[in-house]
Amino acid sequence: MKFLPLILRNLFRKKIRTTLTVLSIAVALFLYGLLATIDTAFRSGVDAAGADRLICRNKTSLIMPLPVSYRERILQIDGVADLTYASWFGGVYQDPHNFFQQFAIDKDSYLRIYPELVVPKAQMDAFLNDREGAIVGRHTAERFNFTLGQRIPIQGTIFAGTWEFNIRGIYDGRRPEDDTSLFMFRHDYLDERRVWGRGVVGWYIVKVRNPQEAAKVAKAIDARFANSAFESVTEPEKVFMIGFLKQMGNIQLLILSIGLVVLFTLLLVTGNTMAIAVRERTGELAVLKTVGFTDRAVLSLVLVESVAIALIGGCVGVGMAKLLTLAPLSIKNFMPVFYFSPTRMIGGMLLAAAVGFIAGLLPAILAMRLRIVDALRRV
Amino acid sequence: MVKVDGTNNKDALIRVRDLDKKYHRGSEVIDVLQGLNLDVSVGDFVAFMGPSGSGKTTLLNLLGGLDVPSDGTITVAGEQINRMSGRVLSAWRARHVGFVFQMYNLIPVLTAFQNVELPLLLTKLSKSDRRRHVETALSIVGLSDRMQHYPRQLSGGQEQRVAIARAIVADPTFLLCDEPTGDLDRKSADEIMDLLVRLIGEHRKTILMVTHDPRAAERAQSVLHLEKGALVEAHR
Ligand SMILES: Nc1ncnc2c1ncn2[C@@H]1O[C@H](COP(=O)(O)OP(=O)(O)O)[C@@H](O)[C@H]1O
Ligand SMILES: [Mg+2]
């Protein structure tokens, strides 16, 4: 504590240089704050998606169906709030390269379970009134210039023949990560026209009353159908998102790489500042040693100064990032969560401290090794 | 009493025997000090003179434990410092030696008060005790009214007086001054010499001083010349 005046004085003796270094660190930590916030947003988006939804499918494989009779039986299970089902159609529009997914869905319940897929009321009514109606996501609609009322022929591959649908609705996702490439049509139309596979559906989507009970409910569903001809596997929707998460893995890798590059630059900037500081204070460090400061005390002085610079920069950067996440911004409409958590903030400060320590280490060791007689001769 | 012939003087504070210091510059070996003997008693004021490069600074560095001899012994108050190293030597310096340099070597970002306080930061003294010691030291050098000034706000002579205050604040066993007036004008130099003489007379300090300046050397009790790596008494 009694060395504080000395440390503080040293810290601010070259105000411009210290300020620039502090700002570099602040900018980097600000960037860290944003990356951490975005990372949090993506992760929690996935978590939120799966929190109250379970996917129940045939235990053998995703392409094997489940009986339609399971609907009533699942609804009886304690903790189940709602349910819907869908089937894979696997058709081709004009050319196999024009790939997009087509689901046959239960017209009454599917969008109730997926409220993040938004269809205007009038379009929804039109869909409900047209047995050959279809709802297509914005992304696919724009890709093929589908318009409301247009009649679309799709060549069945699983279910033979050419199927024609009327575009009755175009849906948007509430969040940017919602998939808007789906082509959905009515399951009753599929059941009416298909010549095989009636009485089965592709998979069930179960909404649980309480996300905390999801695992328990999933277990209960699978137990209900154990040892039957159609055994089931029920998992939180988030498990289905693993593929999605793996793509996110690349983005996380990108974030990590950016972070590492910035961190490395920061080490050089801070290290350089401290190296200059030590070099121009050679004489003074020698004086300190002359009056009895030990080599280790001199080492600590330099290290403390370096860590202090980094922590000040860290405070500024983390603080700015936090303020940004609190500000009203349009970006928040696209992010389910835009939150810079205290844990991540502390993580940022620790990062800054580590940068200060590592960057200060070499200059500090040079200061420690400095021989008084050589240093004084240079003055 | 100051002696340079190596005969024992039983009340010597500093005793140097057969001191050698060699520097290696590439394959070349420079014998700066060769078989140097010196005895200094408490209260002595010794001036070392000699041409530039004769080894005066080297001798002071060895006496102050800033460097280690190639051979020979240095005993101060019964302790052989040529055997000490690192930490022990740091602690010994802090306890026994006050340094004054030609270029003052004050820390520019600290006030006169804080500069003088530096050696005390290494002691266990309380804040108020440190303040008392610093104030006493600064009043001895006549700078009680300049305590909150920074070095750049002081004249060269005043800076050197702050440096002397820093050297005496921890009440060291002896002072080492390397050309303390070398960078000062006549008047400031005389004031510094007055101060050093007063430290000897009133405060019973022991001072070893290197100087080029005959007027400064005159004020010392004994003047020694460094010739061919050893000390000889000057003929007055
Ligand atoms: N670290 C060193 N390495 C090599 N030579 C040195 C070193 N320090 C001093 N010397 C040499 O030792 C001699 C004495 O130097 P010094 O003690 O500074 O002389 P003075 O103070 O009397 O002018 C000089 O020739 C100088 O070049
Ligand atoms: Mg010299």
Write up this protein:
The complex is a heterodimer of chains A (379) and B (236). Helices cover 56% and strands 16% of the residues of chain A. Chain A is of the alpha+beta class. Chain A folds into two domains: 4-45 and 249-378, no CATH class; 60-230, no CATH class. In chain A, the strands form two sheets. In chain A, strands 1, 3, 4, 5, 6, 7, 8, 9, 11 and 12 form a ten-stranded mixed sheet that branches. In chain A, strands 2-10 form a two-stranded antiparallel sheet. In chain A, strand 7 and strand 8 (162-173) form a beta hairpin. In chain A, helix 1 packs across helix 12, helix 10 crosses helix 12 (295-326) and helix 10 (242-280) runs parallel beside helix 14. Chain B is of the alpha/beta class and 236 residues long. Chain B has one domain (42-68, 85-233): P-loop containing nucleotide triphosphate hydrolases (Rossmann fold). Helices cover 32% and strands 27% of the residues of chain B. Chain B has seven helices and ten strands. Chain B has a six-stranded mixed sheet. In chain B, strands 2-1-4-5 form a four-stranded antiparallel sheet, covered by helices on one side. In chain B, strand 9 and strand 10 form a beta hairpin. The longest helix of chain B has 18 residues, at 186-203. Chain B is globular, with a radius of gyration of 18 Å. The mean pLDDT of chain B is 92. The chains are: A alpha+beta (379), B alpha/beta (236). The interface between A and B is medium-sized, with 25 and 28 residues. Adenosine-5'-diphosphate (ADP) is lined by residues 23, 25, 30, 32, 50, 52-58 of chain B.
Overall spatial form of chain B: globular
The helix-and-strand class of chain B reads: alpha/beta
β-strand number of chain A? 12
Number of domains of chain A: 2
What's the CATH C level of chain B? Alpha Beta
Regions with little confidence, pLDDT below 50 for 5+ residues of chain B? none
Taking the sheet with the most strands of chain A, its summary is: 10 strands, mixed
Structural classification of chain A: alpha+beta
- Strands side by side in the biggest sheet of chain B: 6-7-8-3-9-10
